[in-house]
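Consider this record:
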Amino acid sequence: MTKALEHLLDILELERIDTNIYRGFTPETRNRRVFGGQVFAQAMRAAQDTVNSERLVHSQHAYFLRPGDPSAPILYEVDAIRDGGSFTTRRVVASQRGKAIFNTEISFQILEEGLCHQAEMPNCPGPEELEDDFYRWAQVRAQLDSKAKNRASKNRPSLRPIEMRSVNPINYIDPLPRKPEQLVWIKAAGELPSDTDTNLHYAILAYASDFSLMSTSLMPHAISIMNPKLQPASLDHCIWFHDSFRADEWLLYHMDSQRSSRARGLSRGTFYSQDGRLVASTIQEGLMRLHND
């Protein structure tokens, strides 16, 4: 297991400080704000701790309200809304310095058999044929001037805890208009113990689901996420879990964007296991505000 993955597991291990109240921390970073996937996944972990382990998350719907401060702890307060015969519902509010920065509702379900169909997995090269995105990102940074390099470091969280390999990589320095669609292989950057509980695998995928979605909406406009005139931010984020998977095995993340307007872009994602099962889906709307100067 890599050091970076160990740090991610530490991030997802919250401190319980009272009944249904948890405290999470952000590792030392140069980012100006907390990575949205971190808050999304930590809120899931807080809710999971209040629910019988036989019930698994089937959906999570969240809104990002304020930028999170990486230097301050985040408090997660869980509201046990309902415990039904088949479904359990939790609401979680994350706050810093007395102000809410994030809120989410999470639904859990007992495992049931039922009708089943799915979209086919896209045909593309496998991860073993592709270059690691982290090394490509390092090469991009090396070509930037000091000001742009500093800005890039502050606006992009490290890819190290999650290994990513893009099928058709984005050109961040000199982008051209292209179809708003991406295929990226992802997995945890290291092997997890065989007895790792399903809840943790879900949280790791929830964390990873925030990578690359917004950049999909930017692709038709030839705007890079590094553009100094761009003000990007996640506005809301949802995820649904459909089938079993391991977060330390390769998953194909297929992303597309159907619409952008009014300084917002909507992007969708689906995760496929290597044997072709569609195991999870996600949708995110992001702020894509362009400033004149």
The first strand starts at residue 15 and ends at 18. Residues 36-48 form the longest helix (13 residues). Residues 217 and 257 are 5 Å apart (CA to CA).
